[in-house]
Amino acid sequence: MSLTRRDVLIAGSAGFAGVALFSPPSARANDEALDLVEQLIGRKATMSDRLHLIMPADFPTGYTVPMSLYIDSPMTEADHVRQMRVFAPRNPLIEVASFHFVPQRSLPRVSTRIRLAKPQHVVAVAEMNDGVLLMTTTWVRVATDGCA
Amino acid sequence: MTTPTPRVIVPSAAAKGEIFQVKTIISHEMETGLRHDDQGNVIPRKIINKFVCRYNETVVFSVDLHEAISANPFFEFSLRATESGRLDFVWEEDGGAVYTLSHQFTVG
């Protein structure tokens, strides 16, 4: 399906960007993601706008979907991110990767390519040095199953 | 199956304290263990499950990879130039095989 300008205008007038045409209500998606993270990690995470998961909203193949992940962090001994994990809840195997960073030595950002089986909210969780879990989600629509 | 071949793009020098970018890729099918062959048998999982970057023996960045990382795993990340020496890149495959690359790095 291709978006026409009219679609975008109609979606815009409803108060959403074009991407909202495809996505379920994000409040519900966030609740589901928060529950999922609590099940997987055993602790509660909080949604945070410090964490950025950049992916295309619409991508033709599920085999190689570009993904960039970063967090605003000074990366000092006293305040840094230990690891960032990515989950694809609608994949047959939902764990995607864990990225480990080192204060003073690496910046808390990474890019890679991932497989998605179907359109879904991809979830990223950052574990800070004090144990706090921050998370964010991004809606990605893929046209083909990248896990088949 | 092709032999996995790792490649790295990284500068050979940087100023002290400077941030530099590293791009790594290894040719690898990343067989997920979810697929079946023509006879209906499961094709066993064989993926790169770990990537580690060491800077003069200190781990400065690493990744635990699962099945959802695409074939030919690619990572782009950023490090701080602290001192001259060696960068080591290690990819670990299911079954224990290890693929490595090293890179001399000068901090001026």
Automatic annotation (TrEMBL), chain A:
Domain Ig-like SoxY: 39-147
Domain of life the protein comes from: Bacteria
TM ranges: none
Alphabetical list of Pfam families matching this protein: SoxY
The protein's name in its UniProt record: Sulfur oxidation protein SoxY
Source species: Mesorhizobium escarrei
Lineage: Bacteria, Pseudomonadati, Pseudomonadota, Alphaproteobacteria, Hyphomicrobiales
Automatic annotation (TrEMBL), chain B:
InterPro entries: Ig-like_fold, Ig_E-set, SoxZ, SoxZ_dom
Gene3D superfamilies (UniProt xref): Immunoglobulins (2.60.40.10)
Record SUPFAM superfamilies: E set domains
Lineage: superkingdom: Bacteria
Record domain Sulphur oxidation protein SoxZ: where: 11-100
One Pfam family, short name: SoxZ
UniProt protein name: Sulfur-oxidizing protein SoxZ
